[in-house]
Design a protein that fits this description.
Elements lengths: L15 H32 L1 E2 L2 E2 L8 H25 L5 H25 L4 H9 L1 H10 L2 H14 L10 H28 L5 H9 L22 H14 L1 H5 L3 H13 L2 H13 L4 E4 L15 E5 L2 E12 L6 E7 L11 E7 L7 E5 L4 E6 L10 E12 L13 H37 L1 E2 L2 E2 L4 H33 L4 H29 L2 H4 L4 H12 L6 H16 L5
Parallel strand pairs: 3-6
Antiparallel strand pairs: 1-2, 4-5, 5-10, 6-7, 8-9, 9-10, 11-12
Helix pairs in contact: 1-2, 1-3, 1-5, 1-18, 2-3, 2-14, 2-15, 2-18, 3-4, 3-5, 3-14, 6-14, 7-9, 9-13, 11-12, 11-13, 13-14, 13-15, 13-17, 14-15, 15-17, 15-18
Length: 575
């Protein structure tokens, strides 16, 4: 249940007008910070340029700087989103206070990263820090008394969310899935986690009845997405709500059909779309994504599983790993190498729709007349319920019409996969927000009840500061994901937005997943010893949050090979 302050209380000496002016004056400073980051990106570009051409392979000689650059951009983008949110006339005093706190925290951390990025430009970094607009934000936002007053307000009034920016339609969608998450998912979430159980069939059926699996599938195929265009925001709203109840048993249910649907819409034949999209939307066919391999990790272009042409179809040979929900699924989306030359990299990959029976438990073996597919669940710290599998294909036959795109799809598998990954990354950000929100809810309630040294834990300054920082961070992640959803949807209408949308999806994943680890850690810490016990939900949130920076693109690979590479390649010299 979202609790939003309707009539904010002024807990500081600063008026609402003063807060607005501070945020407004910081606009130019944030623009200067962005310009400074662009200059550092261009310096890296020059270091990676040979004979006038950018050589991406040379970026490996500057991995730490590339990593810092990507994280700095992610923090800056989140700060800009919070600033725009606060500048809205509808923003309350609480919105403004949280925005100032978050911007101050983000910029302070960003400046530390800039000190390492530009070790020979410390004077310029110092000048940025001392600029009037930035100092007004930093001096207030980093003030412990300001942060504590904000946290006390949250605790006393039970506030766990800032102003709702959703329209009526999305709000109704959220409320529908909130009821499902509260009434159906939450009661079984702990048991599924502790005993590493399968997701109950009754839960899957009820999720299907609500249209859970069709959030990214057009209405003409039975999904919830309007035929006239994408609706990434709806998908994000549902994902976040379900993740608040359980990441493994609910929050990730949408991910796999979303990736499969995007791949089918990007390259599937009309017959493939007509056959599979309605089945995915209705939940009649549940799917899993088999991309990662034991020796490739996030390096999708190095996939080695072979697909060899055979009479009437293809024979698959090789292994996949971290294939979540592979046992229960009826359909596997498998990326395989159809070109015999490994040197072709991503150009030799094709994408297949592989049918199989659904299996319960932690292992399965599907025998064909000659071929075989076996799977064994990987024991994990968290993210339980769906189970992630090691898969082994041995002369496993798939018919010719299983190749996405048919003959024209040969060698196009990498591109179809990437079409789904942008949605997967922003969805992972929404999953992170949901887990953070659940952890914060528990921490807020516990600190109000727990008494330490004669007073409630929530009455201590440090607790109040932690609560304030946590809520500000969660709010930034939520608003950032909403913004990226708008960009992804605009991508379908304007091709010029495509690069920006893909980059933003990577940035929000970087930011939200790192934030989730910190927020859940703080929630566990506020619980003390109880937080480390399995009987406390925050222990589940903590181990679940840890996986978010690993899947859908490991943090380091995403930062260096995707975000930094794009930033550096597109950087322009300073004026």
């Amino acid at each position: 249940m979202r609790q939003v302050l309707s009539e904010p209380t002024n807990n500081s000496q600063h008026t609402q007008a003063d807060l607005r002016e501070r945020i407004q004056r910081a606009t130019a400073t944030l623009a200067k910070l962005e310009g400074f980051l662009n200059r550092q990106a261009y310096r890296l570009r020059e270091a990676c340029t040979e004979q006038g051409k950018f050589q991406s392979v040379r970026l490996d000689d500057h991995q730490q700087h590339a990593y810092d650059l990507a994280l700095a951009y992610a923090a800056l983008e989140a700060a800009k989103v919070m600033q725009e949110f606060a500048q809205d006339e509808a923003s309350s005093e609480l919105d403004l206070q949280c925005a100032i706190l978050f911007i101050a925290e983000s910029v302070d951390e960003l400046l530390h990263k800039l000190s390492r990025l530009a070790a020979d430009r410390q004077d310029a970094v110092h000048e940025l820090r001392c600029s009037t607009g930035l100092q007004e934000i930093l001096s207030l936002g980093l003030d412990p008394k300001f942060q504590a007053a904000l946290g006390m307000q949250l605790s006393q009034q039970g506030i766990n969310s800032l102003r709702d920016v959703l329209g009526a339609e999305k709000r109704m969608m959220r409320e529908t899935f909130e009821r499902f998450a509260r009434d159906e998912v939450a009661p079984v979430a702990e048991e599924i986690h502790r005993q590493d159980l399968d997701i109950p069939e009754a839960l899957l059926n009820k999720a299907a009845d609500l249209g859970c699996f069709g959030t990214s599938i057009p209405e003409r195929f039975g999904g919830l997405q309007p035929d006239e265009g994408a609706d990434s925001l709806g998908m994000i709203v549902v994902t976040e709500v379900l993740s608040t109840a359980s990441l493994g048993a609910a929050g990730s249910l949408i991910t796999r059909p979303e990736i499969a649907a995007r791949a089918l819409l990007a390259g599937g034949t009309e017959a493939q779309q007509d056959k599979w999209l309605p089945r995915l939307a209705s939940g009649d066919s549940l799917c899993a994504i088999a991309i990662t391999e034991p020796d490739t990790g996030s390096d999708v272009a190095s996939v080695a599983l072979r697909a060899k042409a055979a009479d009437g179809g293809w024979l698959l040979n090789g292994a996949k790993t971290w294939c979540t929900f592979a046992g229960r699924s009826d359909l596997l989306l498998v990326l395989a190498r159809t070109g015999g030359d490994d040197r072709k990299g991503h150009q030799g990959l094709s994408l297949f729709l592989v049918e199989k029976p659904a299996y319960s438990g932690h292992s399965f073996s599907y025998q064909q007349e000659q071929g075989e597919l076996t799977g064994t669940a990987i024991a994990t710290l968290g993210y339980r319920g769906m189970h992630s599998y090691d898969l082994f294909f041995s002369d496993f036959f798939v018919p010719a019409d299983s190749l996405i795109g048919g003959e024209e799809g040969i060698g196009r598998g990498f591109y179809y996969t990437m079409a789904g990954f942008a949605g997967g990354r922003i969805q992972t950000a929404a999953r992170a927000t949901g887990v953070m929100q659940a952890a914060f809810n528990e921490a807020l309630a516990y600190t109000q009840q727990r008494r330490v040294f004669g007073q409630a834990l929530a009455e201590y300054q440090l607790t109040q500061i932690k609560l304030a920082r946590m809520l500000a961070t969660i709010s930034a992640a939520r608003l950032f994901s909403y913004r990226v959803a708008e960009l992804l949807d605009a991508e379908e209408r304007e091709e010029s937005n495509k690069s920006r949308a893909q980059m933003s999806a990577s940035l929000v994943k970087l930011f939200a997943c790192r934030a989730a680890e910190w927020v859940c850690r703080e929630a566990m810490q506020l619980h003390g010893g109880l937080g480390y016990a399995e009987e406390s939900p925050v222990s589940r949130y903590f181990v679940d949050a840890r996986v978010l920076s690993i899947f859908e693109g490991a943090e380091e690979v995403l930062a260096i090979k995707v975000v930094a590479r794009e930033l550096i390649a597109s950087a322009e010299p300073a004026d």
